[in-house]
Amino acid sequence: MSVILIADDEVRIRRLVADFLKRDGHTMLEASNGEEAIRLIEQHGEIELAILDVMMPEKDGFSVLRYIREQELTAKMPVMMLTARAEELDQLHGLQSGADDYVTKPFSPLVLCARVKNLLLRAGKKDDNTNKFGELDIDEIRHEVRVNGKDIGLTPKEYELMIYFKNNRGIALSREKILNAVWGYDYFGDLRTVDTHIKKLRAKLGEYGGKIETVRGYGYRFEV
Amino acid sequence: MSVILIADDEVRIRRLVADFLKRDGHTMLEASNGEEAIRLIEQHGEIELAILDVMMPEKDGFSVLRYIREQELTAKMPVMMLTARAEELDQLHGLQSGADDYVTKPFSPLVLCARVKNLLLRAGKKDDNTNKFGELDIDEIRHEVRVNGKDIGLTPKEYELMIYFKNNRGIALSREKILNAVWGYDYFGDLRTVDTHIKKLRAKLGEYGGKIETVRGYGYRFEV
DNA sequence: AGTATTTTGAACATTTGGTGAACATATCGC
DNA sequence: GCGATATGTTCACCAAATGTTCAAAATACT
Fold first, then answer.
1. Chain-centre distance for alpha carbon B111
2. CA distance A73 to A134
3. Separation in Å: D28 C1' and A156 CA
4. pLDDT of residue B143
5. Residues of B whose CB is below 8 A from A67
């Protein structure tokens, strides 16, 4: 349901958290240090929650938190801090570091999942469940897109593209942004690949194909 | 969002700063010495911040700073100085050199980014989200310009021209400046090409076409 | 391993936009 | 008012962006 960033240098912890939250339907982004976390935040536009370990190489959790609060776009992102020892907790509160929640290691994955849920709810996680536009129905539960009630059989990439467009309707998206968001920030492919997928998506959308408008000299825009 | 000049003779530093600030959405101009920096400032009309290394060949950072403060057009440009050693800092302040901020090497790119952001905010540049002038609406999110609520279908060059005018409203812009800003500083084309685009832009702006005034013997000015 | 599906980008087609020469018109200094 | 210069306007050619097709490569499925 949401896109969540987990930053921790311990692979075990990262995997553990990521696996549990994935099972809750979230999309997980993983970073093994602070620099990486910041890069992910910069490049991935729609992160809805960040879980940061305090102790990390390159840049610690506080630095990343400060970065998040400084950037206008991310300033209001809910942030959960992971700390290794209970003693640090007081320090954290004393520092008024601006995090939204603290969890001390070792933690129970289920407790963590519950707190994540709370944070997302508290953040008013905009239930952007508007996925029906006329006879175009983007069904994220069934993981399919229907036109006139019939599944149009999108491939994985086409589906992700569709979701990205849906989450950014009315916004002009450059090919670069689309590549970063749908293919991943570490993908270095031809920008024109986007065009090819757009074409196929438009074709499958049939009468709704025109809803994906070309923004000449820039990229594309999904209109509803 | 903003156009920023970085002048430093060390390529590594230049690239580092440029890369980070690019990720923040800024357009970067790079100079490897003071002479080059001044040339770029002369040719590029809308530089919003200059980051100058103190120690550079040809002309050092102070000389460039003095130049900036002497020119009426650039006198108020925020300037950030980079200095190699902490000791120099006192000296700088003592000299009252007129820079807006100082950063000592080695520095954290993120700290630098944050300070840049502060300077731009302080300069009142960032909040220039005024894109509605009566019934003329310049929508950078949708990447379109509307008059009376209707998209006037600008071509890429026309759109960029419009944005440039919007960011420099009330300022007389020579054809050279316009070419440098919209076409790129490495473009060598006919100055009259600007006229052709102005004509088309005026036509599409309809009743607002007159807002682009001719400054005879010089260039054009967007008035609101 | 073998088959089916999906992804990818090169190649070509088509559409759209950019450019500057040429001519028309306006403005200025005298 | 006249010539000189600057700007407005039009248009045809060329350049660039996007659409489209396709086959090879990668991936998933069995």
1. 21
2. 31
3. 11
4. 92
5. 110, 114
Strand D, nucleotides < 7 Å from a protein CB: these are 6-11, 17-22
Q: Which two tokens stand for residue B162?
A: 């419009």
Going from the N-terminus, what domains does chain A have, and what CATH number goes with each? 3-122 (3.40.50.2300), 132-222 (1.10.10.10)
Q: Are strands A79-83 and A219-222 parallel, antiparallel or unpaired?
A: unpaired
How would you label B60-78 residue by residue, b for 16+ Cβ within 10 Å and e otherwise? bbbbbbebbbeeeebeebb
Does the nearest atom of strand D lie within 7 Å of B219's Cβ? Answer: yes
* pLDDT 10s digits, B174-207: 999 899 889 987 788 999 999 999 999 999 999 9
Which residues of chain A are within 8 Å of residue B157 when distances are taken between CB atoms? 217
On whether the CB atoms of residues B29 and B40 are closer than 8 A, the answer is yes
Q: Kindly report the three-state secondary structure assignment for every residue of B145-208.
A: EEECCEECCCCHHHHHHHHHHHHCCCCCEEHHHHHHHHHCCCCCCCCHHHHHHHHHHHHHHHHH
Mean pLDDT of A13-27: 78
B145 touches strand C (CB under 7 A): no
Measured between CA atoms, the residue of chain B closest to residue A39 is B23
Q: Is the pLDDT of residue A96 over 90?
A: no
Interatomic CA distance for residues B111 and B97, integer angstroms: 22
Q: What is the pLDDT of residue B123?
A: 65
The string of pLDDT tens digits covering residues A109-147 is 767 877 888 788 777 655 455 678 889 999 888 889 999
**Segments of chain B scoring below 70 in pLDDT:** 45, 72, 85-98, 106, 108, 110, 118, 121-130
